[in-house]
Amino acid sequence: MTAKKRSGGKGRRPSQPRSSASSTPAPARRTSEAPSRPGLFGSLLGRRPIGPSPLGRLTTALGRGFVVVGGSWPILLVSFVALFGEWAVLIAIGTRTTPRFLVTSMALPPIGSALDFQSAQALGGTAGIVVGFALLVARAFVLAILAGLIIGVLEGRRASLRDARRGLRAVPFVVAINVVGLSALLVGGSLLQVLGFGLQFLGNVMLITALLHFLGFVPAIAIRERFGLVDTLRRSRAAASLAGGQQFTFCLLYVVALLFVLPLVGTLNQSGGLITANPSVSAWLYGMVAAYVNVSFLAALSYRWMAAEPHLATQPVRRRAR
Amino acid sequence: MVGVPINLLAGRAFGQAAEPGSSFAWPQFQGGASHPGTAEGPPPPYRQSWAFPVVPIGQQGASAPVVVADEAIVVGPAAVYGIDLATGQERWTLARAEGPSTTPAVATVKGTAVLLFTEGSSSSDTKLRAVGLADRKPAWATPFSLGEQSHSGVTVAGGTAFVGDDAGQVFAVDLATGKERWSVLLNDGVQGPVTVADGTVYTVPQERLAIGAAATPTMTPASSPSPSPSGQVVGEPNRVSLVALSASSGDPSWVVPLPLGTVFTSLPVAAEQTVYVAVSDSQLNGELIAMNTADGAVRWVHRGVGPVWQTSSPTVAGGAVYVADGRGGLWKFDPANGKRLFDFQFNEFIRRSSPVVVRGTSVLVGLGDGRVVAVDASSGHEVWESERDPGLVGGIAVTRDLVLSATGGLRSGLVAYEPDPQGDLIDVTSPSVADPARLLGNFAIALVVMVVLLAVPLGYLSRRTEAPDFGEPEGSEDEDEDGAG
Question: Nearest CA of chain B to the CA of A3: how many Å?
Fold first, then answer.
């Protein structure tokens, strides 16, 4: 087994050929022995796998995500400073909101960008669109840097400036998935209006989950590999569809945590429900816990991709034959 | 009928809120047919002078008050009350068929003061009544029958009373005879006093908001309007719209559909060739829209305000537009371009109160927790607030000496505030104004706490945990270094 106690040192592990089966990381190797067949939403809609999925266990990924993020002060610092920056920008453009907004402030694409655009609409007209897009790009930078730092830690190093720089590779990809996701939410949201409020809400939740399902691996792929946008999207979709991966369940868990559990917890903090430009210490703590959860899910997604990567590297993603 | 001498009323007229030519201090909703909401009343600070109870029935308490000479008038669920402004004592009570407590109006008819109010809760007993203010005897041969229950209240302008009902009928009734001048069927109900300015009637037909226990609004659908004999139903189909009607004939001047997704709106207010209305969507996001009175063309839109309730009206005074939203935000806008001049966030809902500008220097508004608050019209700082009291504050009226506010809940009634010579003004900045020291300080404390709480134990755990060996892909370093170089 290649699993080993991490040193936490600065040394980098030797580069490994990504097309070689011998470089398969431990969890992936364990799972790769059983052939897995992809389904549209993994095991939810696809065929049941014979063995464990290359994506590994859902709880393992989440556990690693929370430990990697929580155990790295640079990642925490970037997350929390970005949280503050987002809040400061919203206040500067005149948004009147409560600190409960901080829950979704560091949300993964496309939720965060959708909220940015909603906030920017307060400016109206062209200014609203320009500011909305500027926020989208800024968010892409933050997410890409965080993904770079996370991947650095997952690769066995301490998060460093070099990892942050490496993460910048993902910026155009994250901008792209933000645009794709935002467009899908706008179009889908309009179409879902015909369903009435209850079903529309449910439909929106499923739409967000599906977008995250298909696009969630893009930042990690963009940083770890050298594909173009289309191939990166295909690989993300292919990884998400690996049988037994429970990727849809994973994404649904995230959406439920973000849209239901964290806001519910937020009601315990009374000051968090008041419109203010100056959140209290407790409101900031709450926002930071939420940011930690959001970034931990990003880390879990990165971990899942890295676990599945060798399997997909030897299975080129191709268009489905007609 | 014994009429109140008009010259006496004129001599005792308080404030400047009434429409030009009116002899009354605060004769109808927001002081006039166009909802001006401004008066030369006393400046803050205030103290409570007296309180007059009105027995509530269900959710119905006291209406917004109107003021005539030395008397305040409020409509309760089952009676109309005349209250002595000096003492707060009841002068008279007039029974009415039980129904929504809507704002009455006072007008001059043939030299005497006449009080108009609606009554009833069903199609069979809903009426517009007119009584002499001095003796409370009917001013008309028979009350004017409305088609359905009415929540609109009464607006008077140019010898005509305007009233709407839940089915969407708007009636123009001759004040002298009590006969219909015209009626128009809108595509939804009329939820508050119609606005009349410069010969035009403005209203937004819409479903009625009912406030649930969780303070979330739900809509009560009105009965489907049946076309009037002429076959015309005014209003944009399947869309909330602002309707402008000729005050003399009822003919539609224009109908402007409001933004898609609009669920409810404020009452419109018209001033200086512009009509303002605040719209809200199902997510309770609001926007203030300014339109030309001539054709309804949109002049500007300001997004980002909270939802403004159907029973609240913007106010135009002193070269500014004021809006009180349902989340407790009091906003001031430049009417020329919609630029926000200030906002004060009270974090307490505002449902039945509209901003009232006193002497052009203070803006009063009533909150859901029973407070009446005053904000300085130039700085945007809060300068005075009353004690909290159970029950939300509704409509406000201002006389030369008093500020009157309707209160709801179990202690429904009318509360009067007088100037307080011993009182002190306060100076409170809105919580929506950033305080850099506090903002950064709170963030820094939380940051340190979180990093210590997470990074120390999880860092230790991370070093102790066996992790899979994910290597960095081949070639990654070279490209990075190239890029960095």
Answer: 5
Question: ipTM above 0.90?
Answer: no
A80-84, B3-7, B458-462: which range is least confident on average?
B3-7
What are the residues whose beta carbons fall under 8 Å from the beta carbon of B47, sequence distance 6 or more? B417, B418, B419, B420, B423
Residue whose C-alpha is closest to residue B88's, from B373, B416, B400: B416
The full set of domain ranges for chain B reads 6-437
Sole residue written with tokens 């880390």: A299
Distance, CA of A86 to CA of A71 (rounded, Å): 23
Please state the pTM of the whole predicted model.
0.83
Residue A85 contacts B where some CB pair is shorter than 8 Å: no
Contact B472 A13 (CB under 8 A): yes
- Contact state of A156 with B470 under an 8 Å Cβ cutoff: yes
Q: How near does any CA of chain B get to the CA of A28, in Å?
A: 9
Are B263 and B240 in contact, with CB atoms under 8 Å apart?
Answer: yes
CB burial readout B264-296, b (16+ within 10 A) else e:
bbbbbbbbeebbbbbbbeeeebbbbbbbebeeb
State the Cα–Cα distance between residues B426 and A207, nearest whole angstrom. 50
Residue A318 lies in a domain: no
Among A6, A88, A278, whose Cβ lies nearest the Cβ of B467?
A6
CA distance A321 to chain B (A): 30
Instruction: Look up the domain containing A201 and give its range.
Output: 42-313
B189 falls in which pLDDT band (50, 70, 90)?
very high
**How many domains are contained in chain A?**
1
Q: Which single residue is written with the structure tokens 């398969």?
A: A24
**Could you tell me which CATH class the domain B6-437 is placed in?**
mainly beta
Q: How far apart are CA A235 and CA A214, in angstroms?
A: 9
Q: Find, among B129, B477, B432, B159, the residue nearest to B305 by Cα.
A: B432
Read off the pLDDT of residues B57-66 as tens digits, 9 standing for 90 and up. 887 889 999 9
